[in-house]
Structures are given as structure tokens and as C-alpha cells.
User: What shape does this take?
Amino acid sequence: AQSVSQHNHHVILSEAASLELGCNYSYGGTVNLFWYVQYPGQHLQLLLKYFSGDPLVKGIKGFEAEFIKSKFSFNLRKPSVQWSDTAEYFCAVNAPWSGGYQKVTFGTGTKLQVIP
Amino acid sequence: GAVVSQHPSRVICKSGTSVKIECRSLDFQATTMFWYRQFPKQSLMLMATSNEGSKATYEQGVEKDKFLINHASLTLSTLTVTSAHPEDSSFYICSASDSVKGYGNEQFFGPGTRLTVL
Assistant: This one.
């Protein structure tokens, strides 16, 4: 079974600080990886995704993530955070289609608080 | 972009009653819809996956007779919590995918429904 772990549950940063949120998954085969964001009072939105190709993926709002297969990791980064980045971030993994449907497993989420 | 709506956004009901939550894809056809449950300070837990026109596939530990899912059309899926009890109080979120081709297709999430059972 696939699982996703996010080690940072709550991160507090000052504006302009650099961000790195950890995400590790356990699944031996090919996976697709996602980072979703949930702003206060809003629903989940896709930040970025990795299917194949360049392991460094760029998403919206200046976020990027690097897939390191040997480490089973897909960490999210942003060089300079803004107050508007305050949100909860979820890492997710999707294994290849099996049994006629697809399935995404989410990590426990990381709450990011950016202080002006 | 793809939009998914849920109705109602909030519902309060008495113990023993049934509650129906609707999930609609507004501008695309959702061949597959997913229902999640989110507990406070926890991640989303997949409850079931439904493909249009067929029975839903439930995750282990989710009672199919308790959580009835119907995906009658390409734009609508419903989750009915039958004989609700206080422990069913939670945040229910649906998502939709517009293709069953291959894997890894993006899911578009609804805003969620807060269910409170008194």
C-alpha cells in the first residue's frame, strides 16, 4: 500500500524567508506526485504535479518541488515566502491506475504561517 | 478552470436521520468522483471512488450501507449518510477527475460539506 508522510506539521516563517516542506512516500513502483494547497476558508487547489521527465517541477505562485527517486522524496520549496502563502499544504501520491480506478493518498498536511 | 461544487456547505441534523450531500462538476464531465472525509487536524481520508454508472468502490473500513454513493450522471455524485450519529460529524469533501485514461489525472476538489450530527 502506498503512504505519504509529511514531517513538518506546523511551520512559522517570516516574510521573505525560504521555505522547504518535506514529503516522503512509500511505494515501490512508478508514482505520480502532487502538492495541493488549501488557503483559509477555501478548497484544495493543485500547486504542482510530477508525472515524468524533469524531476524539478515548477508550479504556480513561485513554488517548485524536486522529485528524488532514490530518497522517495518530493519536497516543496519556495525561495521567498509571502504572507499570502499562509495555508495548509498537502503532499499526495497516486499509483498507476489499477482495478479500474485511480486513487490518491494524501499526507497529513503542513500548516504554514507566514508572519509579516 | 474545472469547478466542482458541493451542496450543502453546512448541515446540522439530528441523530438517526439521513443526510444527502451533492457533488457536481460544473464545466466538465467527471467520469470518476471521489469522496473524502477530513477530521480536525488530520489529512483527507479517501472513503470511496465512484465511476459513472457503476457501483462505488469503498475503502477498507468504510461501511457501504452507511455511506451510500450514487454517481448517476457525468456531472453529479451524491453521498448519503444514513442514520447519522454524532461520530459521523466531519468535513466531507468530494473531488472529480475528467478522465479515466491512464493515471495521475488531476482531481478537482469541491469546497466541502461540514456535517454536524446532534
Notes: The mean pLDDT of chain B is 88. Residues 32 and 51 of chain B are 5 Å apart (CA to CA). The interface with chain A takes residues 4, 32, 34, 42-44, 46, 49, 51, 57, 93, 95, 97, 100, 102-107, 109-112 of chain B (CB under 8 Å). The first strand of chain B starts at residue 4 and ends at 7.
